[in-house]
Structure formats: C-alpha cells, structure tokens
Amino acid sequence: MTARAYLASFFAFALSGLALIALVGIVVDGYGIFGTRLIPPSRFPPELRLTKHGDRITKAIEIAERQGDRILFIGDSRTQHGLDPDAPALSEVKAYNAALAAASLREQIIALDYALAHEPDIRHIVWGLSFEAFGTLIATSVDYPDSGFAGGSLASGFMHHLLAFDFFASSWKAMLQARHRVHAQMKRNGVTVYEGDPVEGPAVVKLYENELAATGRALHGPIAQEDLDAAHAQLHRRLAELKAKEIDVDLVLLPMHIWRLELFRLVGMEAQIADWKREIARTVDQLAASPGSGQLRLFDFARPHPFTEQSAFTALSPGVRRFFIETSHFYPWLGDKILAKIFDKGADGEVSPFGREIGPLSIDEDVASAKLDLDAWEATHPRDVGYVKEFIPRR
Predict the structure, then answer these.
(1) Is the pLDDT at 387 greater than 70, yes or no?
(2) Res. 152: pLDDT tops 60
C-alpha cells in the first residue's frame, strides 16, 4: 500500500468513526437539544434529558432555544436540585431553572444576564442564595469556559454534544438502557429529576456522613469578609437594575439540614451567616425607594424547622417523605413548599410555618428566633450534636 493510499484509508476510517459518534448523538439526543431523538417516549420521555457535572454547555443551549418563559430560577446546586418549575404553585406560568452546580454569585449573575438577553419576556426571578457559594470565584472544575455563558458559540456547544467523549458516553449508555427505560437525571426545564422513593436506611446515613465530612474538611472558620462585601455590592447593583426594568425578584435563603446548621455553629460561622442575612435584608430595604416598579422580596428558609430536622437515624412515619438528599441539598417536594410560600399558594396546614418573609418580619427578629430554635434543638438532641462534632477535623 502506498503512503497516499494509507493516508486516504486512515482519514476515511477516522471520518467514519466521527460520523458514527455523531450519529449516536443525533439518534439518542440524550440532552434534548437537536429534536432528533428516536427512542420512543415510553422509554425516554421527551420532557427528560441526561445531565453531566456542571451542565453549563447544555443549559446555555436550552436557554437560547426556549421561548415563552415568564419566571426564571437562578442559583447554585440547591436551586438546581430542589426548585421545580413544574411545581403546583406555578401551574399556569412557564418557567425555567437556570441554576448551575457550584455557581458563585458572580456566575449566577452571568447566567441571569444571558437568560434575559435571550428571553426578554421574563418578568420574575426566583433567586436561591447559599452562604457558602456567595462570595466564591467561578469554579474552574466545571464546563463554564466552553459554554455560552462564557461567550462560546451555540455551534461550539452543539459540536461538544456530538463529539466530546463525555457526551458520547452518556448517549451510548442511554441507548443501552433504552431496551427498558432510560435513566434520565434532569428535566428539560432545568431541574434535577427524582423518580421512585427517596433513599432510606443505612444508605441515607452514609449520604449525610459523606456530605458532612466534605463540608467539615472544607471549612476553616469564617469566609474572607472582603469577598462577601464584593458579592454584596454586585448583588446590590444587579437588583437595582432589575427593579428599574420592572422585573420582580424573590431572594430565597435556601434551607439546609439541621446538622449542617449545627456544623456552621460549631466551626464559628453562625455570626457571619447572620450578618450575611442582615446585609441582604439591608440591600432589599435600601432599594425599596429606588427607581422602577419591580418588587424585591426576601425569604429566609435557612433556619431550623421540623422539615429540616428529620433525623437520618430514625425511620420516618408511614406516608412521610424524606426532605433532604444529604445535609446540603433538598428534594423538589420540599421545594414545592418553598414555592407555595413565595407564590402564596397556601400554607399546607403546617403548625409551624415554613420560611419567613423578611419585611413583614424584621431581620433581627428572624436571626434571633433562628438562634433560639437551634439552641432548643441542641438541648433535645445531644446525640445529634455529638455526631456532628465528629466531622470537624482537629487542627
């Protein structure tokens, strides 16, 4: 065989391989962006799609393709896991969850601006806030640099879905699962999907342990105040702009399991978190008289409540569902209760109301009552307190 014939054969083989990879991606369309999925809906429902860590490339394409959204969810992985645009409280309004795992406030603002540029009809923002991600930098371990949020073209995003190894591996796995039913991890409205019953028994304890251990290793006390101050200034500017554009914004301090609240207290972060809440409340209060008719509200769910105090040690009563995946992330059925509170769709008959709107209630009263509630929980749960202490590394 001549060199020319060898090269021709080599390139023909390589092109055939790339064509086969692209064909699998188009036929499976695991991320639902091409509209070419051939797997029957009974085995891969069209409203579901696959996901991968980070999910920036896919969400940027989804946002660019969508039309008619009136409500946008912004936040980090807590929002992505727990707030479902298909919640009963939003039954008559089209919405999309643009939250991104490990997204700092500055990346959330970039995603927000990107979404508003592609969908000018968005009139309401539900903005999930987490203290841990508030002042951090944009994560370098995710696919942000290759996404539309970082200025990447849609064509580049589509090519990633056709030729990148991780997308091909996901498509191949979905094709193999299609004989029965594809295990899709996300809805095409941007929220993580959970099918079947929540994890229970020893497995749920393990999930809680792993999350607590990872958090304990990562925390070394209060976060650098200058980073928080810079993020507060960013938030203030962006809220002022949204209000002037007549866009309503609900800021939501997202819930976490009581063990995580206790961990923050034990490592000395409770006071800083309280000050973080106060500064956000101050921002909302200061902007009340600023130009524009957009409504700004603040809700605090990051506090003790019977919903957040479910112990991983004990089985739940029949008919009661577990609300937390681990100590940081909550299931969408707890998110439904958050959205019911925000959109005034009923209190579900709870003896203890879930979440507090700051405004009708002062932030100082909210912070003080949350501290007293955690004191009361500590006094009645010494075993849990001792358990959480075990996950604080000795330094």
Answers:
(1) yes
(2) yes
Q: Checking DSSP bridges between strand 48-49 and strand 71-74, what pairing results, if any?
A: unpaired
The model's pTM is 0.94
| Higher-scoring residue by pLDDT: 13, 230 | 230
- pLDDT tens-digit series, residues 1-18: 687 776 777 677 778 878
pLDDT in tens, 53-93: 668 999 999 999 999 999 999 999 999 999 999 999 998 89
Report residue 138 CA to chain centroid gap: 15
Give per-residue pLDDT as tens, 303-338. Answer: 999 999 998 888 888 888 899 999 999 999 999 999
Q: Is 66 exposed, middle or buried (0-12, 13-18, 19+ CB in 10 A)?
A: middle
SS (H, E, C) the chain: CCHHHHHHHHHHHHHHHHHHHHHHHHHHCCCCCCCCCCCCCCCCCCCEECCCCCCHHHHHHHHHHCCCCCEEEECCHHHHHHCCCCCHHHCCCCEEECCCCCCCHHHHHHHHHHHHHHCCCCCEEEEEECHHHHCCCCCCCCCHHHCHHHCCCHHHHHHHHHHCHHHHHHHHHHHHHCCCCCCCCEECCCCECCCCCCCCCHHHHHHHHHHHHHHHHHCCCCCCHHHHHHHHHHHHHHHHHHHHCCCEEEEEECCCCHHHHHHHHHCCCHHHHHHHHHHHHHHHHHHHHCCCCCCEEEEECCCCCHHHCCCCCCCCCCCCCCCECCCCCECHHHHHHHHHHHCCCCCCCCCCCCCEEECCECHHHHHHHHHHHHHHHHHHCHHHHHHHHCCCCCC
Average pLDDT, the chain: 91
- Kindly give, in sequence order, each residue whose CB lies less than 8 Å from that of residue 387, ignoring residues fewer than 6 positions away: 259
What is the C-alpha to C-alpha distance for residues 9 and 377, in angstroms, rounded to an integer?
71
Percent of the chain's residues with pLDDT above 70: 96
Nearest to 78 by CA among 213, 258, 254: 254
pLDDT at residue 101 is higher than 80:
yes
d(CA 209, CA 328): 11
For residues 126-152, average pLDDT: 89
